[in-house]
Amino acid sequence: MKTCRNCGLGIEASNDLISCFKYKTASNSDEEKSDCLYFIDKIIEDGEPLPPIQHLILVEQELGKGKMKISINNGFRL
Questions:
Q1: Are 20 and 10 in contact (CB under 8 A)?
Q2: Per residue in 22-32, pLDDT tens?
Q3: Measuring CA to CA, which of 18, 23, 66, 70 is 20 to 30 A from 39?
Q4: Is there a contact between 56 and 49 (Cβ–Cβ < 8 Å)?
Q5: What angle do CA 35, 37, 43 make, to 5 degrees?
Q6: Distance CA 53, CA 9 (A)
Q7: Half-sphere exposure of residue 44: CA atoms within 13 angstroms, side-chain side
């Protein structure tokens, strides 16, 4: 299940809230986030999770791969 608590971009705050590193918002830690484009499972290296900035870089690289590249010849229609 995709929740803010399981996301690599989540930063634990007070009162069972999780702060999102990307969106700078706070939400319930167990709230379902299946539609969040930036959700990423926590990546553990040497027994420690990667910092949120590294998770964000990984997500943005992955999203960048999927963008269409329009060339001048193929992308223009008159």
A1: yes
A2: 999 998 878 88
A3: 70
A4: no
A5: 110
A6: 8
A7: 4
Residue 10: how many CB atoms within 10 A of its CB? 24
Find the helix or strand (DSSP H, E) in which 72 lies.
helix 72-75
Write the pLDDT tens digit of every residue in 28-78. 878 888 889 999 999 999 999 999 999 999 999 988 887 655 555 555 555
The dihedral through the CA atoms of 31, 67, 44, 18 has a sign that is: negative
Tell me the one-letter amino acid at 58.
L
Nearest alpha carbon to residue 28 among 12, 52, 41? 12
Query: Nearest 5°: CA angle at 31, between 35 and 28?
Result: 130
